[in-house]
Specification:
heterodimer; A: mainly alpha; 11 helices; globular; B: about 200 residues; mainly alpha; 9 helices; about 75% helix; about 0% strand
Chain lengths: ~290, ~200
């Protein structure tokens, strides 16, 4: 049971803790490495006319921030969470609750999110600077807003989603090695559901990352370039709800207000299921094969 | 030595790693053209598993015991034997899908694991208790990213793909890179044994 004094202390401690966690995130060696890789690889591989990406411009580029900020973020956040827990354990009785520390850790996702937003700006600019070739992705058919949304959902939301998933895993699976193994399992699942296999193309939108366009190399249509079915708008809403759900699941680790959090999680779960259903059924309704 | 290894190694984690590596290589075996990045992910996870074998949570007590670090590291190699056994079996099972280079693929896993053990042992010899966890936290995201995004396949073909050099199948250059990694790992391991 918390007292009013505890609540007041938590409220005043949260902004300070959040600032500290943001600085720790920004200075984490893995985050700095991800920044260096993002900058270097972006500079080395512009989608100009001579590149292999000339027909899709920047549309396939969000895999860079998704992996470098999302997958790296899972590991960074798990390590920050463990460090926070170790510090609390070493201090004995700490004045702030685990929920406050969880919220402070979650606040630090603004760091990768800010980088992802800057990169999103580059991707949008790059899309206009190096437009797809004439036989490339049919922008007239899908619309520019479709392009902007795909770039945002694939490149920006994972920058928050990855670290939040790392937070959940660190809270619920404290065993050694659980988060790196989970990251590889997630990549395995995403690879299988990226849209390459025709029977999985519709339900692929249940995954936290998938393709909407590109070269799909299934055996019967080897190397065909296509725009896949589904609505990136609803999928984006689904991903935002997954992020919100992850935060609630991380907070559920502490008993305080559990009943309220479970009710909130149920609401988020229902909304996420609806958005996922709409992402599958709305938008581009049949696969568009283009070019080549 | 075996009794020490049974008690000291994180067996549930190693069995999980071995299972995931088997699953990754089975997917590669079935769909090599589209799922090839998972081969690199398997190599990264294998190296992480090898690094975890070297962690010594009770270093503060164990390091002052009469048994030398060389003895304890040798005992811990039992975990590495499990991981490499699973790796070699999975590569052998998938050999027809590995673009005619099963030996090079097998070497990638063996050298990556040996390098992880060498680095972790060297850090252990310098007093770090759990260097494996730190190394694994770096290896898994970096190698997974490199395998999935294949950012500069012509310049740094860590995980070559197909038999065509134009498509990123520069197996000869890749072998040179991996042999350099092996040489660095051997140097580190010798340094660790001499100082530890």
């Amino acid at each position: 049971m918390t007292t009013l004094a505890d609540d007041a202390l938590d409220r005043t401690a949260l902004p300070q803790l959040a600032r500290k966690e943001m600085v720790r995130y920004a200075l984490h060696p893995l985050f700095l490495l991800s920044l260096v890789l993002l900058l270097t690889l972006t500079t080395l591989n512009p989608p100009d006319a001579d590149s292999a990406s000339a027909d899709t411009s920047t549309i396939l580029f969000p895999i860079l921030p998704a992996a470098l900020l999302g997958i790296f973020g899972m590991i960074i956040m798990a390590r920050l969470t463990r460090a926070s827990d170790r510090a609390a354990e070493a201090a004995g009785t700490v004045p702030t609750s685990q929920a406050t520390r969880t919220l402070a850790l979650a606040s630090s996702v603004v760091v990768p999110l800010a980088v992802a937003l800057l990169y999103y700006g580059y991707l949008v600019w790059g899309f206009h600077h190096w437009p797809p070739t004439a036989d490339g992705i049919p922008v007239a058919e899908v619309g520019t807003s479709w392009v902007y949304t795909v770039l945002f959902t694939q490149g920006v939301i994972p920058a928050a989603g990855g670290p939040l998933l790392g937070l959940v895993l660190a809270r619920w699976l404290p065993q050694r090695g659980a988060v790196p193994v989970a990251a590889v399992v997630l990549v395995l699942a995403v690879m299988l559901m990226q849209g390459v296999f025709e029977p999985l193309r519709e339900i692929r939108l249940a995954m936290p990352w998938t393709h909407f366009a590109g070269q799909m190399g299934a055996e019967d249509e080897a190397g065909a370039h296509m725009v896949l079915t589904g609505s990136p708008y609803w999928w984006g809403a689904y991903l935002v709800l997954l992020c919100a759900g992850a935060l609630v699941v991380a907070l559920l680790r502490e008993d305080q207000q559990r009943a309220r959090l479970v009710r909130l999680l149920a609401v988020i779960g229902v909304l996420a299921a609806v958005c996922c259903f709409l992402a599958i059924t709305e938008g581009v309704n049949s696969t568009i094969v283009y070019g080549h | 030595m075996v009794r020490y290894a049974i008690r000291a190694l994180p067996w549930p984690l190693l069995v999980t790693v071995a299972t995931v590596v088997l699953a990754l290589m089975e997917v590669v075996r079935r769909w090599p053209w589209t799922m090839w990045p998972l081969e690199g992910c398997a190599v990264g996870l294998l190296a992480a598993g090898a690094a975890w074998c070297c962690d010594e949570p009770a270093a503060a007590m164990v390091d002052s015991a009469p048994r030398s670090m060389l003895w304890r590291t040798t005992a811990r190699l039992l975990g590495l034997v499990l991981l490499l056994g699973v790796w070699v079996l999975s590569v052998a099972h998938a050999r027809d899908s590995l673009f005619e280079h099963p030996v090079e693929v097998a070497l990638q896993g063996v050298i990556a694991s040996a390098a992880a053990v060498a680095w972790a042992t060297w850090r252990r010899s310098r007093g770090a208790a759990k260097p494996g966890g730190l190394l694994a936290a770096g290896i898994v995201p970096v190698v997974t990213f490199w395998a999935v995004a294949r950012p500069i396949p012509q310049s740094l073909p860590l995980f070559p793909y197909t038999t065509s050099v134009e498509l990123g199948g520069d197996w000869a250059s890749s072998l040179v890179i991996w042999l350099v990694v092996a040489a660095v790992a051997a140097t580190l391991l010798i340094a660790a044994v001499l100082t530890g």
